[in-house]
Design a protein that fits this description.
By secondary structure, the protein is α+β, with helices and mostly antiparallel strands. About 35% of the residues lie in helices and about 25% in strands. The protein has 3 helices and 5 strands. The strands form 2 sheets. It has a 3-stranded antiparallel beta sheet.
């Protein structure tokens, strides 16, 4: 029997994809919102596709705020965008 592949839904575009092809976003116990590249941080998580368009859609639709059950400010989105761009940068 083949091994089950975990699937997650992007909160930006709504597409269902393999978990390892997406980026996990976490709200920590302190209330900070961070990118979780390893997918192991403690806290409430949500998933985004690995492109800036999905982050923009999530911002416009206030999807992160709904997923984390709190208000996400614009400066937190900017910090998250910077983290995602840093991870996507070629090494």
């Amino acid at each position: 029997m083949p091994k089950k592949v975990p699937m997650r839904t992007c909160i930006g575009c709504g597409e269902c994809k393999e978990k390892k092809s997406m980026i996990r976003i976490v709200r920590t116990a302190e209330g900070r919102i961070l990118a979780d590249p390893g997918g192991r941080m403690n806290g409430r998580g949500a998933y985004l596709c690995r492109n800036a368009e999905c982050l923009e859609k999530a911002f416009r639709r206030k999807a992160l705020g709904r997923a984390f059950r709190c208000e996400v400010k614009k400066d937190e989105y900017e910090a998250l965008r910077a983290q995602l761009e840093e991870q996507e940068a070629p090494e």
